[in-house]
Amino acid sequence: MPLIDTLLSGQLLFAALVTGSIYALVALGLNLVYGTMRMLNVAHGDLVMLGAYGGYWGFTLWGVSPLVAAPVVALLGAAAGVALYRGVFRAQLARSTPANAAKLEGNSLLLFFGLSILLQNIAALAFTPNNRAYSYLGEVWQVAGVAMTGNRLVSLLVAGTVCIAVAMYLSRSVAGLAMRAVIERREAALIVGVDVDRVQWQSFALGFGCAALAGVLLSMLEQFSPFSGFPFTIAGFIVIILGGLGNVKAGMVAALLLGMIETYGVALTSANLRSVLLYGCFVAALLLFPNGLFGGRAGRPS
Description:
Elements: H1 3-7, H2 10-37, H3 44-62, H4 66-94, H5 101-127, E1 140-143, E2 146-149, H6 150-172, H7 174-184, H8 186-191, H9 196-219, H10 230-243, H11 248-268, H12 274-288
Antiparallel strand pairs: 1-2
């Protein structure tokens, strides 16, 4: 395919939008947890993996549609997030001060790294390390000359709707504004009476729920295994770096940009270079855009 035809391909644009919407949903939860608590959740991609298994087993064992299972899996993910927050991180955050913030961030990195290894190995032991996949809504529809499978179109619509709904929640609801206040100025939020503890467990619930939902959508699109979550953690961090910490709207734009870089990059090179493109974007984002594509101050939401 000539280069110009590749760049103007509606098929590739649709694929990039689907990939970008999944990345946006993954990064959304990661952004909220890190933004409100400065915790590096490197196990976030493993939550996506577990959500994928939830959709897979629901469909293959009980014949439950992934679209029906999705809200249930998301609620289970949210409940797991609240339990983890109350059982492990709540006491640490209560003892946190500006002086030991760096220590807390480092400890959270180690704790989540241990959790990631634990989840991967438990999943491999319970489900075997083999790749899993199933076929659902695989029929092809032609829209304006672009071939779209039903599962990809549904994934785009669901992920996009959830991201927009969360952005509206953060900008128009009292609880969402409180969450943004904690992201921007934690100490100031405490002074003006924001219930920071409630904001923190809500961030865990929303973040884990979004990751689990992304996993169910992913399970309809591609193969997955107990060890397939880490690339989604990296993708989430790329989106946060490019969009800026706490900037949900810019994060969506960054996720779509990452989806386009990956999709068009693979089309122009090789599918074997997908990981190279992803990690290359990660390094480039760290070096070139430490405060995001829009040059905003880190930590300031929009």
